[in-house]
């Protein structure tokens, strides 16, 4: 018997081949959950090639099914009420239940020089990083409550716990995510709905590479110098892997975390959180 046998999990922002969402999907599937992997539609450029997100999600589904797991891919823009409604209709008609929601989709919009951040960039950051998780939680909680419980895991950041220069909107929204987590934990614990935040530090994904590249340009240094500078304060002196974050999510989704709610779990290699 695996820890998540019989459970269904929804993971947002899961198409990126090097992303945290994909690693979470693979890990929860390995633990026995049927996983619904979702992301925006359209195409993305990776290593100079254009890829359809639907194809990337379908490849992930094939990989999970090839290992004996159950998975389904769906298009889900976390800022779209229509997409959220359609997604829940499909999940409940296909799997009959939803036990685990992982709010993983994130955006670095408006994470730049604070004085040049525009209201529109700030709004995109709010919509993706905070409003989307709130709307998904509102959609999930009634089902979880009626089933006798569930888990909501919000992917925050060290930007949920402190600030470093150049990430204004992201830091504000990721701090807000902690408030969302604590609110859900406080209001729905009595129904068995547990909610926690996982706070990754520097994790070697495309989002992290993009941040290193931008900061290197802004500071007129090489990317490897920028990495050295950023990792100097990390106790283990390196970036982590998406799988490191997935392990923390698996713990919070599973029976070993039956009495854990409202926490922020840093997965950072020992990084100070800044101011
Ligand atoms: P990623 O590869 O960029 O994955 C995030 C995914 O969310 C991308 O596919 C992204 O699409 C998608 N997304 C953006 N807007 C969306 C929307 N409206 N609806 C649905 N999906 C949307 O980044 P990652 O590094 O794996 O990050 C995953 C999570 O970990 C994020 O919440 C991030 O803030 C957090 N995190 C990452 C790090 C790190 O070092 N990597 C550190 C701390 C926290 P686009 O590619 O189009 O944007």
Instruction: Assign the structural class, choosing from mainly alpha, mainly beta, alpha/beta, alpha+beta, or little secondary structure.
Output: alpha/beta
Radius of gyration: 18 Å
Order of the strands making up the biggest sheet: 5-2-1-6-7-8-9
Report, as a whole number of angstroms, the end-to-end distance.
Answer: 44 Å
- Following the backbone from N to C, one meets helices and strands in this order, namely EHEEEHEHEHEHEHHHE
Task: Note down, in words, how this protein is organized.
The structure is a single chain. With 275 residues, this protein is α/β, with parallel strands linked by helices. It has a single domain, classed as NAD(P)-binding Rossmann-like Domain (Rossmann fold, 3-Layer(aba) Sandwich), CATH 3.40.50.720. It has 8 helices and 9 strands. A 7-stranded parallel β-sheet has the order 5-2-1-6-7-8-9, with helices on both faces. Strand 6 (100-103), helix 4 and strand 7 (150-155) form a beta-alpha-beta unit. Helix 3 packs parallel to helix 4 and helix 6 packs across helix 7 (223-231). The longest helix has 29 residues, at 119-147. It is globular, with a radius of gyration of 18 Å. The N and C termini lie far apart (44 Å). 45% of the residues are buried. The model has no long low-confidence stretch (mean pLDDT 96). Bound molecules: NADP nicotinamide-adenine-dinucleotide phosphate (NAP).
Produce a short descriptive summary.
About 45% of the residues lie in helices and about 15% in strands.
């Amino acid at each position: 018997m695996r820890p998540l046998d019989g459970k269904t999990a929804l993971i947002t922002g899961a198409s990126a081949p090097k992303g945290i969402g994909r690693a979470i999907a693979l890990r929860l599937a390995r633990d026995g959950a049927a996983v619904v992997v979702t992301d925006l539609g359209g195409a993305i450029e990776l290593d100079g090639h254009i890829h359809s997100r639907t194809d990337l999600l379908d490849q992930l589904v094939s990989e999970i099914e090839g290992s004996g797991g159950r998975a389904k891919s769906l298009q889900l823009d976390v800022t779209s009420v229509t997409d959220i409604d359609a997604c829940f209709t499909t999940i409940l008609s296909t799997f009959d239940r939803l036990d685990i929601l992982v709010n993983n989709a994130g955006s670095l919009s408006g994470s730049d020089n604070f004085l040049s951040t525009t209201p529109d960039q700030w709004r995109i950051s709010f919509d993706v990083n905070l409003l989307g998780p709130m709307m998904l939680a509102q959609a999930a909680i009634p089902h979880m409550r009626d089933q006798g419980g569930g888990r909501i895991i919000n992917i925050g950041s060290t930007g949920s716990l402190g600030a470093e220069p150049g990430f204004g909107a992201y830091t504000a929204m990721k701090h807000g995510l902690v408030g969302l987590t604590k609110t859900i934990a406080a209001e729905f614990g009595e129904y068995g709905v547990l909610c926690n935040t996982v706070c990754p530090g520097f994790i070697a994904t495309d989002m992290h590479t993009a941040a290193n590249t931008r900061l290197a340009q802004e500071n007129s240094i090489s990317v490897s110098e920028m990495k050295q500078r950023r990792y100097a304060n990390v106790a283990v002196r390196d970036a982590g892997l998406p799988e490191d974050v997935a392990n923390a999510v698996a713990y919070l989704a599973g029976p070993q975390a039956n009495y854990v709610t409202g926490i922020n779990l840093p997965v950072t290699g020992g990084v100070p959180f800044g101011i």
